[in-house]
Amino acid sequence: MRLLMISALVGLLVALPGQAAARMAFEKLTDFDFAGTTYYSVKNLSLYECQGWCREEADCQAAAFSFVVNPLSPSQETHCQLQNDSSAANPSAAPQRSANMYYMVKLQLRSENVCHRPWSFERVPNKVIRGLDNALIYTSTKEACLSACLNEKRFICRSVEYDYNNMKCVLSDSDRRSSGQFVQLVDAQGTDYFENLCLKPTQACKNTRTFANARMGVSEEKVAQYVGLHYYTDKELQVTSESACRLACEIESEFLCRSFLYLGQPQGAQYNCRLYHLDHKTLPDGPSTYLNHERPLIDHGEPIGQYFENQCEKSAAGGSLPGTQDKVDTGTLPVSLDTIEDPNLTNLTRNDVNCDKTGTCYDVSVHCKDTRIAVQVRTNKPFNGRIYALGRSETCNIDVINSDAFRLDLTMAGQDCNTQSVTGVYSNTVVLQHHSVVMTKADKIYKVKCTYDMSSKNITFGMMPIRDPEMIHINSSPEAPPPRIRILDTRQREVETVRIGDRLNFRIEIPEDTPYGIFARSCVAMAKDARTSFKIIDDDGCPTDPIIFPGFTADGNALQSTYEAFRFTESYGVIFQCNVKYCLGPCEPAVCEWNAESFESLGRRRRRSIESNETKSEDDMNISQEILVLDFGDEKREFFKADPSTDFAKDKTVTIIEPCPTKTSVLALAVTCALMILLYISTLFCYYMKKWMQPHKIVA
């Protein structure tokens, strides 16, 4: 028995080897059916046509394939059902037993090793095999557990057990067919057993793989007769001998061939070799399936044939035979998790919480960004292993290969890194792990956090190795995104030159992918010469005259106000200037009054921040934007070009906007043109008719 011992750290999740984009795969259940919503069904499709249809349909979540055996024929009539909703993904859902049923569930697995076979795993609900574990990991989803099996490099992962309640994933190099151990499936409510069907034919057994008559207390003739009627034939071919049929099963690559039925010498063009992905261990009732089977009512005289199943031989020494596929480059199991202590370690190194037993010391620093927490690690010697977010090892990790400087970015939004936030404090737990799968005593766990304090914009974080209660505090500064003002027309195009009365959208923007919100107050519209100004938003964030310039409303992270263009008497240029500050998350609106009516304007930060910052702080940002406002006919006046106050012509191109024609004027012009054309045609018609009707003069 090969058993990989795990260091006892209750509740810790460990990394899955390899990071890859999610790929589509399927799991299959034999003689089980789950409740689901069928949106399409069709008869007389093959098993692989049914599964391929579900693969191509984006709405298909599961496919139920069944076939009915007609004992009078005997023949198989198939029925394929595509389901856009299935209870198979619910761990508490109980499947129903259903004879001659293959239930296939679509999966998304993060592994480069997902095979191109119809299904990657065979699932047996609420079952486990005891005492044959090779590795234990904790991961949040069944898909991550199956991906771990496909990504495993230290040994050949033949089976998986996933405990949904405890998020416990067990990998094993044994399965139901392994020899040399007592293998038995036992009941385990809430835990499913999976067999890896992406194995190469030579990997199906630890040692030598043979095919022999199934010995299970039932006559060979009765077993072969049941197989011929109730097994779905994966592939048929014509061969010259039983050994050729055996070889075809051994080298089959489109599916993992577990058994075959040889019907004797070929007769004409008939197929005499049938290959199956099933064997008696795949069936839920095992040998009892054949024992309770009755003979067909009519005997057509067709040959019953000989049935052979895959068997795994036991090696003489109880281990792997030399040169077999179970030997891997990374060493044989069991793997010892006891780390070797470096004799050159000093007492100072042993007592440092940032150094481990191998003599590796970690210098961990955290940089708090707008959208992520960057964890930078430097080591005193090259590090091999992984760094990942606890609980999200499959979606938030970095593989480190012989490096003394590396970084992990923890996203602050979404579930990829599972960053937690409470009242402006974003926290996560990062694991520095030497081994690709398991955690050892040499690994380090750090608690990192970023506290966003908007009054001073200081960012603090702490990090704490889980075995040391002392918190290390380091101050940092955030990289606050710069705000900007944009003025858009009704078509959402940014403009620089407009006319009086044009409807405009005044926007104050910051990047969308940031945790900040903004508020604006003390907004002023000034003439270009700065001799005249008009406050449009007061110090509390309320509009001074909503008719001229309404209050701000929220549009995502931006503030916007829709107004009609205005200008000052003595200047064409209008400069807008606003005082902008940040909030962590959405800002609280100001309650404003105008003409005895109350309304809200997003022009101030949260009320508690206003009370503690009555005077203008150093964090206020003043931003401005300039726009040229013309009246009709201004572009034809000579002084417009010579006026020194209109400096726009010196450094930018001034776009003169002509008034656009209205729909009424366009329609009137079209009608006028149509009438003129009709009149012209009528005149020509009358002229030629009159000329045609005049009598011709006869010359004597």
Automatic annotation (TrEMBL):
<dbReference type="Pfam" id="PF00024">
    <property type="entry name" value="PAN_1"/>
</dbReference>
<feature type="domain" description="Apple">
    <location>
        <begin position="21"/>
        <end position="106"/>
    </location>
</feature>
<dbReference type="GO" id="GO:0016476">
    <property type="term" value="P:regulation of embryonic cell shape"/>
</dbReference>
<keyword id="KW-0812">Transmembrane</keyword>
<feature type="domain" description="Apple">
    <location>
        <begin position="115"/>
        <end position="198"/>
    </location>
</feature>
<dbReference type="GO" id="GO:0007160">
    <property type="term" value="P:cell-matrix adhesion"/>
</dbReference>
<protein>
    <recommendedName>
        <fullName>ZP domain-containing protein</fullName>
    </recommendedName>
</protein>
<dbReference type="InterPro" id="IPR056953">
    <property type="entry name" value="CUT_N"/>
</dbReference>
<feature type="signal peptide">
    <location>
        <begin position="1"/>
        <end position="22"/>
    </location>
</feature>
<dbReference type="InterPro" id="IPR052774">
    <property type="entry name" value="Celegans_DevNeuronal_Protein"/>
</dbReference>
<dbReference type="InterPro" id="IPR001507">
    <property type="entry name" value="ZP_dom"/>
</dbReference>
<dbReference type="Pfam" id="PF25057">
    <property type="entry name" value="CUT_N"/>
</dbReference>
<dbReference type="GO" id="GO:0016324">
    <property type="term" value="C:apical plasma membrane"/>
</dbReference>
<keyword id="KW-0472">Membrane</keyword>
<keyword id="KW-1133">Transmembrane helix</keyword>
<dbReference type="GO" id="GO:0003383">
    <property type="term" value="P:apical constriction"/>
</dbReference>
<keyword id="KW-0732">Signal</keyword>
<dbReference type="Pfam" id="PF14295">
    <property type="entry name" value="PAN_4"/>
</dbReference>
<dbReference type="InterPro" id="IPR003609">
    <property type="entry name" value="Pan_app"/>
</dbReference>
<dbReference type="GO" id="GO:0007015">
    <property type="term" value="P:actin filament organization"/>
</dbReference>
<feature type="domain" description="ZP">
    <location>
        <begin position="367"/>
        <end position="599"/>
    </location>
</feature>
<feature type="transmembrane region" description="Helical">
    <location>
        <begin position="666"/>
        <end position="688"/>
    </location>
</feature>
